[in-house]
Amino acid sequence: MNQTINLASQIQEYLPRQLWQAVNTVGKKATELGQKLYLVGGVVRDLFLGRPNFDLDLAVEGDAVQLARELARVSQTKLTIHPHFSTARLDYKDFSLDITTARREVYPRPGALPVIEPGTIIDDLFRRDFSINAMAICLTPEYYGELCDPYKGKDDLERGLIRVLHDQSFKEDATRILRALRYEQRLGFSLEPRTLQLLQHDIPMLDTVSSERIRYDLEMILKEEAPEKILNQAYQLGVLQKLHPSLKGNGWLAQKFEQARQLSKKVPLPPLYFSLLVYSLTETENEQFLLRINPPKKLTQLLRDTLHLKRHLPELTKPALKPSRIYHLLYEYSPTAIQANAIASDTSKIRQRLELFLYKLRYVKPLLDGTDLVRMGIPPGPQLGEILKALRQAKLNGKVRTRTDEEKLVHNCSSR
Ligand code: CTP
Fold first, then answer.
1. Deepest in the core among 1, 195, 315, 322, taking most CB within 10 A?
2. For residue 283, is it within any domain?
């Protein structure tokens, strides 16, 4: 006989007070409507692990949309409904709650989105990726705090195991391959032997996954604390090569990711990691990889920029390069592409010059601007643009310092 585990007091300790009150209110409202409410997924896992996670997912045996509508009617919340998936999101002042109708999923073919029909909480947990993510806690007052753990997720948490619920799991959704590696490294867990076997067998199924979903999971990996560990494991298992055969999750990458983390907290890491990940690809290989992950314009541009600059780095090794020349070579590249090259390049001269641009030259601006020049009698037009350029060059090369120096230069240029 399984003993019932009650987590009522742990929930109260774990959740911030407002959030705790909100979920209890939802639980009561669900009961009034004759529905049973559960806290599900990652938050249950993280509650056991004592890791903060306030991204709450609620599942209701009933109708999530009806429940959310009722709640929005009686409280000051913004309601967003996705009728196709029977899900709703309630945005409170400081947090939000996602409510879904507990459901059964049928996959029409590998990689496709599942066909959904309402089901019990047990059905709902069975459609999930790993046992540690397939637990629920009841929030209905009568059973408040009771753990629902039909697939022994709590045991796996204690043993440090990532385990799929059935043999078809990776076939049905191959993004779980990437998710498995992400949880394994994040939590310092191991893949349960049968799960590892299935994962390795189903690596080719990654081809059935759309570029958007692959990119999303890659981005999730790059948001982790030490993505290089996940990429290394993905490389060892041959998963990374499935995204592009030339990608490598090796010691070089680990070292460069570590260097990226040493930079100022202001530098957003995921785009920089992306640039470092493609650094060893040729520009042609990068284009193939871009087709596979189909990123938005900004990321596409960054990855192209990174490799384009890599090709032009030798110009930065020339002796006695004036600051204005360095500026000219680099100003059209995004700072992240330059930063990636500075980290990746093994030539100290190149690194120095890239950093000179990043930390100093790109901020250099003459004291006079276009309006000043017009006031000095220069008519708006191409000549004014040329004079501004000459001012910047002179400033970069230390030829002008004061406003008077700049005014003199303007007079010289305009009288030529
Ligand atoms: N899930 C799944 N298969 C997927 C994606 C998600 O079964 N391919 C389920 C898991 O039960 C997961 C839940 O949906 O717990 C929510 O997904 P997500 O928000 O991606 O994960 P979290 O568990 O919240 O984990 P994380 O801490 O990584 O956000």
1. 195
2. no
Cα(383) to centroid of ligand 1, in Å? 59
Joined tokens for residue 393: 């060059």
Core vs surface per residue 329-364: b (16+ CB within 10 A) or e: bbeebbebbbbbbbbbbeeeebbebbebbbeebeeb
Which pLDDT value is given to residue 110?
72
Q: Judge whether 248 lies within some domain.
A: yes
Residue nearest (by alpha carbon) to ligand 1 atom 12: 41
Q: d(Cα 163, Cα 131) in Å, to the nearest integer?
A: 6
Please report the atom of ligand 1 found closest to the CA of residue 129: 7
**How far does residue 176's CA lie from ligand 1's centre (Å)?**
9
Q: What is the pLDDT of residues 45-74, one digit of tens each?
A: 999 999 999 889 999 999 999 999 999 988
Tens-digit pLDDT profile for residues 331-385: 999 999 999 999 999 999 999 999 999 999 999 999 999 999 899 988 888 889 9
State which of 277, 312, 340 marks the end of a domain: 277
DSSP state of 3: P
- Ligand 1 site residues (CB inside 6 A) read 41-42, 53, 55, 57, 128-129, 133, 173, 175-176, 179
Instruction: Look at ligand 1, atom 16, and give the residue with the nearest C-alpha.
Output: 41
211-264 tens-digit pLDDT: 999 999 999 999 999 999 999 999 999 999 999 999 999 999 999 999 999 987
Q: Say yes or no: 1 and 123 in one domain.
A: yes
Q: Which atom of ligand 1 is nearest to the CA of 41?
A: 15
- Nearest residue (by CA) to ligand 1, atom 8, is 176
